[in-house]
Records
---
Amino acid sequence: MATPRSLELQHLTWPEVRDALAAGYTTVVLVGGATEQHGPHLPLGTDIAWGQALGERVVARLGNALLAPVIPIGPDEEMMAFPGTISLGLGTATAVLADACSSLLRHGFTRVVACTSHGGWFAPLGALRAALPAADAARVVVVDDIFALLQAFQPHGIADGIAIDEMGAHAGEFETSVALAIDPAMVTRPLPAGTRIDLAAQPDLFDSDISPHAPDGVVGDPRRADAARGHRYLDSIADLVTAAARAAGA
């Protein structure tokens, strides 16, 4: 199988994509990201950056896949109190996913692996198959189990003595460690203490504006973030997505 010049669609010409498909690169990975606040220490594009890193790991593991551009905005109403955040409605987000998948399938990809680096995409991912024609839905692998994702990465933090509410649900130790793994220049210091919230006791936290609960936008405590742990976090999530893709025949 001839290796394409790049595994990223955005860096290929259309003849190169045609040739990659003919050479067996018939799976494409589509990641939903976000442009949203990540506290005073991480950029608005954090989910785009780690979505890209996740996608790169998945296509490398699959060996027959290309990476679509990370979708740069997603559902984000709960973050709209913080300037710079851009939010899509749930219906719009679902339509974006469905149209992107249909476009890719029309070109001859036999599998689209749809996953996310942003929690707001889980609901649209859950609605994706119903939004597609049956023939397309059968060829889309949807990774939309947020609990499976948490179970994939949290043991790596726990093994290092990081509490779950410290890892955090947004811009805490987990995402800050991932950012350090990708590019330490992404992280502005000093790191804030954030707000540690037990989501088991407050499961509806992200159903509305989070600013009354986390005034700086940080749910978690990023101060013990570590790049090596960030790599382990990313690898564990990439393993989860890859396993789902392989189980579906990708």
---
Amino acid sequence: MYKVKIISIFPDSFPGILGQGVIGKAHSKKIWSLKTIDPRKYTKDKHKKIDDTTAGGGPGMIFKPDIMGKAIDACYRNIKSKEKYPLIYLSPRGKPLTQKKVSKLSKMKGINLLCGRYEGIDQRLLDYYEIEELSIGDYILAGGELAAQVLVESIVRLLPGTLGHSESSEMESFNNDLLEYPQYTRPKTWKNITIPDVLLSGNHKNISKWRLDMSEKITKKMRPDIWKNYKKNKTSKK
């Protein structure tokens, strides 16, 4: 079972969308487990204060390292090998999340996620625990809870038994540095737009070629950055 632990001051945010669809079913089938840790549990004052003003001045509040450190320690209680349970902080300054990274994380035994709020967390936490920072995009959210759900869903989809067809995760965008080709279903004609004839031909060789061609055209147009990687890797394999 893949173990997910999430540190959040809003534990009721979970499972959220993670409780629906194939991800929710995978949880019911015990393919993965979810545990939330509320850092307020480790406070001693009556107001359960988990943040304080920014050192040096400035707007916003910062999560206190003494409180958050106890929450992090709780994630690793009774765990012998921390390497198999990476600790990740969802942050806009982190490295961009990629499908390659998701695939790597899915091969671990679990993952521990730290959801920030306000102006962030004390840098000493990141340094002491050697926390990896990941970003789901170049924009700012109010907190890390939604980003955590994005990361968990992307990982759980790759766990054996989650998807109905093993090919489903192999023929998607970003695999082999290509975006996915267009998909169609019945009716054959809608709004005077018809499904491409090749997809109804029954010729699987031609269908595969068409799909590859379309993936290449779409990738080149929509994502020139990964198109460069695709071209580079394609040339190196010749």
